[in-house]
Amino acid sequence: MSALARILLRRGHKVTGSDRRKNLIVHQLSESGVQIFDDQTANNINVICSLSPKLQPLVIISSAIPANNPELAEALKKKLNIWHRADLLGLLIKEQPSIAVAGTHGKTTTSTLITTLLAKAGEDPSSVIGGLVPHYNSNGHAGAGRMLIAEADESDGSLVKFEPEIGVITNLELDHIDYYSSLSEIIQVMKKFISNSQRTLINHDCNILRKNFKPSAWFSIKETKNIDFAAIPMSIDGCETIADIYEQGNLIGTMKIPIPGLHNLSNTIAAYGACRLAGISMKNIQDGLPFLKTPGRRFDFRGTWKERFIVDDYAHHPSEISATLKMARLMIESGKSPFPASPNRLLVVFQPHRYSRTKEFLNEYIKVLGNADLIFLAPIYSAGEEPIENINSTKIADLLEKKYPHININVGEDLNHLTTMLKTKSQKNDLIIAMGAGSINTLWDKLIKNEDNKSLDKILAA
To answer: Among 73, 286, 402, 405, which residue's beta carbon has the most beta carbons within 10 A?
Structure first.
């Protein structure tokens, strides 16, 4: 929603909005000229209508807005035009050549990498992405170039409204079970998205995609035969990845990217392939590779606290957690990392997201979290869901202790309690990952904002 607000504002529209939380994004929008209401009442709609009496405002809502929301109720009462955010994004996608990136995992990162490569190639694309793009220091950018890059979120099925020039799918598995009852439902939604795209680029390494889709082009990090764009890893450590690049099975060069992790190599070759389909030269793409960075909250190094390294990560699905922890473990084992010193231990502070997701993937969470040396569990972030009996962080802890008796497992009453436990149980050169899609991203702030901390800015300046 904030990315759409940024673009509309830059394109000359008057934008208002409301949010009960006061965070950095809300502050930035307010500073940019967006009128922000810090509560959601019916009177907000009356105020907005009075700003331009001769013009009827267009009301944009997300799937998170319930039917009984007072602003929405008043807008309906006044018979205002009400669009879902996907309607607006779909219009922006249709207005100019667009690349829309979908998939269960990696779509934010892949969208960010495409945006960065196009920007470095001089294209200045517009972008609407669910995470902060380091190149623009924003999740929304109204570029002067011909193209728009959009993250196509499948969580509510609304991506079927998008008609991009190039549709990308990074991977596919069951998720968002609050909306989908089965994997087959997600597949059907993705097939509609693909049918709406003029050309398609899909991950051949994903079994589900390979069995159910026939795209315009495939990408892979595992094989080259009958693959349009492949990146076969040759060297990988905690700082960078080197891979051979193939197009249509032909070796054309070597790719060196400053991002570790096989999952990020897959995201990168997807971005590379999308840019090639968009007509960007191989040389321009190669020139942009050294500037690639993952988006905010994707293994986001926030700084140090008492010589502990604090990382914020959005991972909340078992596959995402597995990929993140494997990358972190690689940094520890290779002795190469983006941190001021090599970390010795891996501490994970995990906040489960939604009761329904926790119930569905409980056993998978147990499997993947075992890659940590110490585990700290926050209470489940409900995201508006009602609790489910016997589904809680204590249940996760009990199962973890049975499977991994050698790992120290801790359950916090809240984030403040977790912070206290971290202060007493962590050690110098520990890598602490605060992981989840809820409020866990405030944990690093609680640790780092101490008078004896060394902030990320100070580290980079040094």
So the answer is: 286
